[in-house]
Specification:
The protein has helices spanning 4-18, 23-30, 34-41, 49-58, 63-75, 101-111. By secondary structure, it is mainly α. The protein folds into two domains: 4-75, Orthogonal Bundle (434 Repressor (Amino-terminal Domain)); 83-112, no CATH class. Helix 1 (4-18) crosses helix 5 (63-75).
Length: 112
């Protein structure tokens, strides 16, 4: 089972980064200290309900949405983030010994 304190911090950090906010920026918006926010994000401190409400508002979220993200993370069902990196991660189909989308696309071109 995931650690609640750690998970709360991870979700807040993830949401802060999604919005491209610095620790200082989010702390100022939530009216808390940068040190306290850092401790929350690292899983060293539990935020009070009032601080959770402030953090949610500072992230332009309802507190219920923030709590739902935390619950999803604890359940392990949070959807993976879509990466924008260039790469081919789709596995080969049909049990081929070669793998990767590039190989598959070349095979299709060669057959046609």
């Amino acid at each position: 089972m995931a650690d609640l304190q750690q998970t709360v911090g991870e979700v807040i950090r993830h949401e802060r980064r999604e919005r491209r906010l610095t620790l200082k920026g989010l702390a100022e918006r939530a009216i808390i200290s940068v040190v306290y926010l850092g401790e929350i994000e690292r899983g060293k401190k539990y935020p009070s309900p009032v601080v959770l409400e402030r953090l949610a508002a500072a992230l332009d979220m309802d507190v219920s949405d923030l709590l739902e993200l935390i619950a999803l993370e604890l359940r392990g069902v949070r959807q993976p983030q879509v990466l924008r990196a260039i790469g081919f991660t789709q596995p080969a189909r049909g049990g081929s010994s070669t793998s990767g989308r590039v190989i598959n696309l070349l095979d299709v071109v060669a057959v046609a």
